[in-house]
Amino acid sequence: MVTPGPGGHSTRPQRSRGSGHRVRSTALVIGAVFLCVLVVASGVATYRVYGFLHSVANVGNPIQIIQHQVDPPVGSVAYKLMHGQRVTILSLGYGGGENDAPWLTDTIMVVSIDPTSQRILEASIPRDLYVRIDAWQDGRQYADKINAAFEVPNTPELFAPGPLRPEFQGKDGAGHLSEATVSRITGLTFDKYVAVDFKAFRDVVDALGGIQVQMDGTLDDCHYPDYHNGYMNHGVPPGWRCPPGAGIHFQAGDYAVNGEQALELARSRDAVQQDQASDFGRAKRQQMIVAAIKKKATSVSALTRAPQLMDALQANFKTDMDLTDVKAIYDFAAKLPDTTFQHFAVTNQDLAADVSAHCGPADVYVLCPIDPTYRMWQTVFSHALVDRQTMGEQAPLQLVNASSSYDLQTRATNVLRGFGLQLSDGVRHSSVPKTVIYDYSGGKYPQTAAWLQDFFGGAQVVQATPPSPGVRSGFVPSPGENTDGLVVVMGTDFYRHWSGLG
Hints:
This protein has 3 domains: 26-198 and 301-357, Nucleotidyltransferase, domain 5; 206-288, no CATH class; 386-499, Alpha-Beta Plaits. Helix content is 32%, strand content 18%. The chain contains 17 helices and 20 strands. The protein has helices at residues 26-41, 46-56, 62-67, 77-82, 151-154, 173-186, 198-207, 259-267, 274-277, 279-297, 306-314, 323-333, 375-383, 388-393, 408-418, 446-455, 492-499; strands at 87-94, 105-114, 119-124, 130-133, 142-145, 192-197, 211-215, 219-221, 248-250, 253-257, 317-319, 341-345, 352-353, 368-369, 396-401, 422-423, 427-428, 436-439, 460-463, 486-490. The protein has a 6-stranded mixed sheet with strand order 11-6-1-2-3-12, with helices on both faces. Strands 15, 16, 17, 18, 19 and 20 form a 6-stranded mixed sheet that branches. A two-stranded antiparallel ribbon has the order 4-5. Helix 1 runs parallel beside helix 10, helix 2 (46-56) runs parallel beside helix 11 (306-314) and helix 7 (198-207) packs antiparallel against helix 11.
């Protein structure tokens, strides 16, 4: 539970009473990395490159960095990727000057790059999560939505009085406070951060001459946000049929889109079509946009657009990476297929709940962590990038809820499906004290069984032979419970860990 400090909740105006505007700017985060390298390689006017590198890529001596005559320093992004060490970057998308709350981060995404397995995890943190933000030198406890962490150093006068801690001041203070806040709940340590705004997203796609998209189905959203903290058709509830001329509309098929249209595809959350409104549908569109920007940015024609690309990025792209880091990510990611990217999103269907009274003010929509200690969150994020051997087994899995929770089987199943594992729907059973993993496969999936044992805190793996329940020490399977593959019976011990009780 978050405990507000002196003065309680923020006195600043609350600008998001409902679920609020959200954006997915993931595509630009990866695309911008490619573009930073392209503008250097393109041979445009030297003074333009100098100015760009100094403001965007944190380069004090561009000639030395461009020549790359020295090895990257130990611990840098380039060094870690070169030596097979994982790199974790915090990706932020904020409204910018066109929004009435320009510094709120509508996108908060963990990007974890594993050079050994050659995979990239993109895990979204909900902007409405209510957390503690520790930014002040006097140690005061301030509670707000997590999207305010980037806003605090940019507009400290709106928040608690007193000086900010030194590491949260200056050019990168906002990014570093966001890193610290997300790190506390996920247990991850961030190497760098990247922040982009709506305008940069649009301008980069336009500077590239548009991108090619492939829509498997139509998308109609008549509850799409405008640029005035409202909606294109305010009177239409989410999910309702759009009246003529309202909202945004995309047809199925292959065609080119401009920057505004690409932003609409990435941002849409309330499509009439259920598959487009789901987390999976949004992730699929975002992955499509990432691939499209990557493809266009690495094409020969993109080199001729370097001046426009620099203009698009220079004022609206913030990072503490230098060019060596950027080039290392470019060299690593440019050769990977789209299937390399794994998407996971924390939602109110897994690790969070939208019961505001549990942790925040009653008149503001917030999400509360089911585990207020965040230990379960840290377990999830430390396991989110499943190794290739485990994934390759494609083991059939099922989770059985044998605890006092009414929905543990559904929420935990959503988490593991987000990892890419193959799970059938979970079922409930009467309570048991200890979690057990029943292996009905005869040892066919050893890597998956070992992974499950680690994720579920050392749970015992028991070899089981259907249909005899005797091998399960009197534990009779519930209706709908599988008797093949791997079945995890989640007991009271795991529920206590899930909910932060022990």
